[in-house]
Design goal:
mainly alpha; elongated; 5 helices
Length: 91
């Protein structure tokens, strides 16, 4: 098949490695390898800054300003639920 697409011939070691992966004799590469989540552009995720901050700090203690913002968001969500007539027992 590689001969059919043309181009330069691959080195024999590369071809053998590809065949070992196809046969399951060698593990496939981790698709996340080489991707550092922390280096991701904030706008690429499409999330508000507050949610990105919570995700980035998920394994660490939350800074006070983030904790306060989270509490405000929770209170707002509870108020919205009360306005919609939904309470915890109905959910």
């Amino acid at each position: 098949m590689l001969d059919a697409i043309g181009g330069e011939a691959l080195p024999e070691a590369t071809v053998q490695r590809m065949l070992r992966k196809i046969r399951g004799e060698e593990p496939l590469a981790d698709p996340q390898a080489g991707h550092d989540v922390r280096r991701m552009d904030d706008t690429a995720a499409g999330l508000p800054a507050a949610e990105l901050a919570l995700y980035r700090n998920r394994n660490e203690e939350m800074p006070p300003e983030i904790e306060k913002l989270l509490e405000e968001m929770e209170e707002e969500a509870l108020e919205d639920g009360e306005e919609d007539g939904v309470d915890d027992e109905d959910a």
